[in-house]
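Notebook entry, cofactor series.
This is the third protein in the set we're modelling with a bound small molecule. For this one the ligand is fe (ii) ion. I'm keeping the input format identical across the series so the outputs can be compared line by line later. Sequence and SMILES below, as received.
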Amino acid sequence: MVLGSYFSHKEGGDTAFTVEAPKIKFGSGALSEVGEDARALGVTRMALFVDPAIATLKPTEQVIGALVEAGVDHGLYTDISIEPTDASFKAAAQFVQEGGFDGVISLGGGSTMDTAKAANLYASHPDDFLAYVNAPIGAAKPVPGPLMPHIACPTTFGTASECTGIAIFDFVEMQAKTGIAHARLRPALGVLDPTVLETLPPMVVAANGFDVFSHAFESLTARPFSHRDKPLGPAMRPLSQGANPYSDIACQEAIRLIGGNLVQGVVDPTPETREALMFAGMLAGIGFGNAGCHIPHGMSYAVAGLVHDYQAEGWPAHHPLVPHGISVIVNAPSVFRFTGPTCPERHLMGAQAMGAETDGVAPEEAGALLADRIIEMMRATGVPNGLSGIGYSEDDLDRLVAKAGPQQRLLVNAPCPVSEDDLRGLFQDAMRYW
Ligand SMILES: NC(=O)c1ccc[n+]([C@@H]2O[C@H](COP(=O)([O-])OP(=O)(O)OC[C@H]3O[C@@H](n4cnc5c(N)ncnc54)[C@H](O)[C@@H]3O)[C@@H](O)[C@H]2O)c1
Ligand SMILES: [Fe+2]
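Returned structure with ligand:
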């Protein structure tokens, strides 16, 4: 392919890739336009979902002010569970069902945006709770018709939930994190106003920033779309289609912005670092929405799911929890040492974009160089020292491998094959970095 040797044709491989582009508005002051945005979408009464931590802060005032000014009525819901559950999704759906709304607006992190998506779905197309939930836990029934328009306004910058048709929750009975995924869940508009990050606790900034880096770098090093088997028909092409020339552009810039701004964004944030980090999150969202993540995210489900008693600073302390971004980045240095030899030039590109000195570095050192730079940034931002830093030991290796192994959707998107033995070695190497 003229667009790069990484995408060279492979016998039987795919020959086309698709581009999904979410509708986004970005910039400081964007929140004050949501009333007009709601009107343009034909909404007269909004179900307004707000993260409890920001319900009394400026962004909430701005959104309510903008709705009032545009003559759009609203009902407020702040009973969001951070890391939502089936019960919290159901309660939110009941609020929408009974409130006579014709639109939904969410202001908060992934937990809030996902709650709004699920509430919109069950209020618009009531069914058994498990009907729409991903198989094998649920029946993965396709959403039968359009939902009410949803304007999603993130107050964090890592999940890119404003770009996706995914809502994630803990299915408490089975101790499993699962979700609902359908294109109709995708918000009609994402509104990214970097000023909302002013109150974000430093460890939430760190977790989001490393999640963004991982989305971008995993997408950049995903198996090229041209090496995945050509689908039997266009409808069979997976969402995680592999690295492609479009996602590459977004991901490279996202990595550069994280490399240049994350440490300062955690220890001494400025309006400029907030803007850079939020823009990086948006770019990485576009990148992984078109390419897909791989091993660090696959391992993260095991790391989050098997949590012992770790509680992170900056999150409500109701129960042990490994925040998503932390559960990903603790695996990343170990994984990139492993994947480095498969596509050294991309690991070198990533290391350079993150701020490492790459002059004179041999291709076989690329993975280790990137790992060292990530570790340096983890230490500078106060992130735990690998799996041991969040309470795991060698005794957990069997369970970690058993829980990560089934994440095949992510693992097959890696640039090289990953066996169970490889996974064990990767978890082992991720135990401690300094
Ligand atoms: N739908 C998707 O595509 C998708 C993708 C990745 C992750 N997720 C899900 O998103 C959730 C995590 O979302 P998140 O990382 O955005 O965090 P979050 O919504 O869980 O919030 C994290 C913490 O930050 C607080 N907070 C949020 N914004 C704040 C602000 N501006 N100022 C002060 N405090 C603030 C919250 O109250 C909470 O304590 C998880 O449930 C995860 O599974 C969804
Ligand atoms: Fe992520």
